[in-house]
Amino acid sequence: MKIRKITQSLFFISVVAIVLDIARLDVWGTTNLLYLIWNLFLAWIPYIISLYFIKKDIPINHFVPFFILWLLFFPNAPYLVTDVFHIASSLSPLLWYDSLLFFFFGWIGLLMGMLSLFNIHQYLKAHLTHSVSELIIFAICFISSFGIYLGRFERWNSWDIFINPLELMRHSFYISANLIHAGVPLTFVVVFTVFMYSVYKIVCALLVDKI
């Protein structure tokens, strides 16, 4: 399966998801779920950046700045999975429709995230040993899980690194320093890391030798 075909398929299912979300507005008159479209847009950013790494002959000094930028936005993709939390507090008579939307957007975000991670992994394997590249991928899953926790529970956003970097770093350092004794943060980060890495390994097994 070619990269272009994958990208076209992702675009198609994204359009379908957006139409379903807008239909929720037009037919039933609610704007409560329109934020899913914005979250989906943010999920596209790391995928688009990762396409840059398909060319494995890119020098490492060009890789690093784009990788950092990618890593800042990467948590936005799997973050969509956590939007299902809103179902628990929903009193909508159309809970079945809302549940479908949350699942659909979450699935797309997770898929795009894993595909972008796969692109990064292919570049790493071309320049590093298998063990080192695998360790970096696991570290990315861990760091991203922490970033998702900051976004979901602490309400930080990716762009805060640009508009409020000192406060974000201070808050992140505080939680990191107390992570072992933090209860929910540690549990969430560990469980989501295992979840994300496991899903990635399945996606990786399906994609190897097909791209």
What are the SSEs and their pairings?
Elements (H helix, E strand, L loop, with lengths): L2 H26 L6 H16 L9 H14 L2 H4 L15 H33 L2 H23 L7 H4 L1 H13 L6 H24 L4
Polypeptide structure, described:
Helices cover 74% and strands 0% of the residues. The chain is mainly alpha-helical and 211 residues long. It has one domain (3-207). Helix 1 packs antiparallel against helix 5 (95-127). The longest helix is centred in the middle third of the chain and has 33 residues, at 95-127. It starts with a helix and ends with a helix. 29% of the residues are buried. The mean pLDDT is 86.
The residue ranges in which pLDDT falls below 50 over 5 or more consecutive positions are none
The major pleated sheet works out as: none
Percent of residues in helices: over 70%
Number of domains: 1
